[in-house]
Specification:
The complex is a heterotrimer of chains A (293), B (358) and C (272).
Chain A: H1 4-18, H2 35-59, H3 70-77, H4 79-112, H5 118-130, H6 133-146, H7 149-156, H8 159-185, H9 188-197, H10 202-213, H11 215-231, H12 234-238, H13 244-253, H14 257-292
Helix pairs in contact in A: 1-8, 1-11, 1-14, 2-14, 3-14, 4-8, 4-11, 4-13, 5-8, 8-11, 9-10, 11-14, 13-14
Chain B: E1 2-10, E2 15-24, E3 29-33, H1 40-48, E4 55-60, E5 63-64, E6 75-78, H2 90-100, H3 105-118, H4 134-147, E7 152-156, H5 164-181, E8 184-189, H6 192-198, E9 201-206, E10 209-214, H7 216-221, H8 226-231, E11 236-242, E12 248-250, E13 253-257, E14 268-273, E15 278-282, E16 288-295, E17 299-306, E18 311-317, E19 329-334, E20 338-343
Parallel strand pairs in B: 3-8, 3-9, 6-7, 7-8, 13-20
Antiparallel strand pairs in B: 1-2, 1-4, 4-5, 9-10, 11-12, 11-14, 12-13, 14-20, 15-19, 16-17, 16-19, 17-18
Helix pairs in contact in B: 2-3, 2-4, 3-4
Chain C: H1 2-22, H2 33-40, H3 42-74, H4 81-95, H5 99-109, H6 114-121, H7 136-161, H8 164-172, H9 177-206, H10 209-215, H11 222-231, H12 239-270
The chains are: A mainly alpha (293), B alpha+beta (358), C mainly alpha (272).
Chain lengths: 293, 358, 272
Amino acid sequence: MSTGSVGWIAADVLIDEVAPAGRAPTRRRRARPRLWRVSILLLAFIYFIGPLVSAFKYSLIQADGSYGFGNYWKIVNSSAILTALATSLEIAGIAAVVVVTLMLPTVVWVRLRRPKLTLLLEGVTLLPIVIPPVVVAAGLEQMQRSAPSWVVSLLFNHALTGLTPFYIVLAMPFTYRALDTGVRAIDLRTLVDASRSLGASWFTTMTRVILPNVQTAVLGAMFLTIALCLGEVVIANLLLYQTFPVEIIQQSLAGTAGIAVALSNLSLVFTFVLLFSLSFVGSRRSGRASRVF
Amino acid sequence: MIRFEGVQRHFADVSALDGLDLEIDKGELIALLGPSGCGKTTALRILGGFDRPDAGKVFVNDVDVTTLPAHKRDMGMVFQAYSLFPNMDVRTNVAFGLRMRGQDKAKRLQRADELLELVGLAQTADRYPHQLSGGQQQRVAIARALAIEPEVLLLDEPLAALDARVRLQLRAEIRSLQQRLGITTLFVTHDQSEALSIADRVGVMRSGRLEQIDTPQNVYRQPATQFVAEFVGAMNRLPGRIGDRGEVQILGHRVAVANPEGYASGGAVDALLRPESIAVVRDSAGPGEITDRTFLGSVTRLEVTLDSGQKVLVDAHGHGADSPAPGERVGLQIVAESVTVTPAADTPAEPELAIEPA
Amino acid sequence: MPFTVYVLVFLGIPLYMVVHGSLTTNGGSFTFDNFKSTFTSPEYKAAFENSLVLALWTSLLGALFGVWLAAAVIAGKPGGMLRRVVSSASGVFAYFAGFPLAFVFIATLGAEGAATVLLRNLGVNLYAGNFRITSILGVGLAYVYFQIPLMVILITPALEGLRPQWQEAAQSLGATKLSYLRHVAIPVLAPSVIGATLILFGNAFSAYATALALAGSTLAIVPAQIDDAINGNVLVGQTNVGLALGVEMILVIVVVMVGYGLVQRRARRWLQ
């Protein structure tokens, strides 16, 4: 992913999609296939699916020129790749959890107590979009150089500490949007009042009442954060950390493009599965809800 | 002037119009009334040219317009809401139809101002639709539809999205405007009081068919079918028996039958009685007890539960304080001169209420 | 709010470092020279030009095909399969900038990519001319891959906001389909389309991951120049000039976002 804006908007789509559309079906004759529709749909199909097929075919070309799953086997057997993947997954997992623990109470608190701060919150969460990743990377590089040594050893000695805090910031635009959409969709005040009047503490209210009700939004925020962490390459590359995407690029530069393509295919499939399973979770939940009410 | 001939329209799983025959005279306001999905809107859309019938024809001034596209029909249409073009100010909106007719700018803007004057919104000409209230928007929509001096005015639930006070006011304004301009109008609504108060004739529709079309008075007083009776206003169904002289005996009273044909003497029937056609008298030995009392303004609606278990709705005039209170025993009197009867239902029915608009 | 503190620390400090560095000489004293040299150096000027050209044509192309695709999808059945698939796929594809996308395109349009080979067999040799997957054109083709879905996502609500009543009202007033488009649909959509195109522009302008994976830092666009300047790949001691470039990038994006905010206000008013 190149900037926050993409994910920030994609988050919206994924979450909105989950909410059942309340729109009454419009009465119209069955749409007849027309040239202007068919042509663009065909074009889009070729342009979007063609490269994916090519990529899959390409990844099957082995070092000796024959077809097979050799590139995929090499990945499984490469300790460098697996180490990098482990690092990236660790970063992704921590970032996903931290971003939700940080953002959800904030979103709830602002909606409940300080609605006037909504605009400020929106503005602050938009900042990472305004600042291109390469500029963030440049700033971090500066920090690395001029910061006191305890900061360097605390933060920058390991990819985990060096990248996670900043990936969380980059993830904010869309985790905020995802969570805000989710919280807007529930009757927050009633839920909180009911829970508090029954004697629940704020912590219990948050974890036992609000969290289950915005489950889909939270999962969406986490999945998008994970996808970002597995895809971010600009900052990691500039700061010379060996994360999964950086490893892929190095594979490609080392002349083993087949492995790089195979790796990016795996990463594509992983993200696909992640995001599509989200819409599955969402529809299952809303299905249950509609049966209850 | 307008004629629907056997018009049919079927959607995937429902038939919205199942052979509609309808004539509208010049200068007449016809209201099509019915529950949602009864086909009234489909009829209007077919007349407007936004939908084509699967079978049947539509004539305007004896010219077959069935396949004429909407933009050539010369019909002004007012929608339920949000039909004003958001990118144009009010004056430009109203002048749009004239612009499409190639009238020059000065003339059409002047005409737009005249029409805005007519609907009492001259001062809003420079505003944009989103700056107007719902009622104002609908007025502008009416002015816009009238600006092209259409042969026919089509109103598709134009008041449904407004709040009650504005609804009543605009309803009266539409009627007086329509009468003043003498414009032929088709008005579609699900609100029976709206239809009864505004129309020259009311057509009650159900499942794609016209159940009855008649003056508001007749539709209310002499509903042609049980559906019409129950959809238009509240209606009691009381079991009765046809007497020797063709009258009906209900609750120990004898009343003339409005539709005696086909009912044999001695047969069991249900009599249909409006709440205002029944009166209550305080009577400690009476056959019923007041079980509910609702003050509705000019009348008080009482629910009487008879000893048989049947519930009867009665409208008592005057203030709530004058009428019997819940718990009091009462007798019932019938104050109508004649009643409509239908074949007896198998089960003793509850009084059925019309679907009141939300 | 702990959240605000967090953002201030982890975004504010890097940002401060960039701005501070861009206004400092290598010796540590205050200067505007870094900015001056970004404007005088022909390489940096060319990089800005390349970045702007890349962002411009990928956003215009993305906008054009995005609107077209979204309109084609919306014309179908509201709850239909096509809509669900395109909506889900857009969310996913818009998200697939960066290295996976780059390698998918190498596999397709690279020197030995499937499309290149296919076209060569049909007698069209892409690589005979100037085309390279690492060129502005090649990278741009990859950008369009995420620009189109992003446009679909951004513009679909606006297209759905076009009320059928508007078209019917226009028709009943004598407008043909064409005059409805001209007088109502296009003017109503214009702010949304412009706003969305601005987002696409900003998106492509600040994007680097895809270009980095496709061409390393050799493609002369602004983010690559920043990368080079900071790593001292070309010249040593250019770090602060790179930071000045970064500040200029931020300014461009801020202008784009402000423009977006302005047209969005109008769009919201019309399409609520």
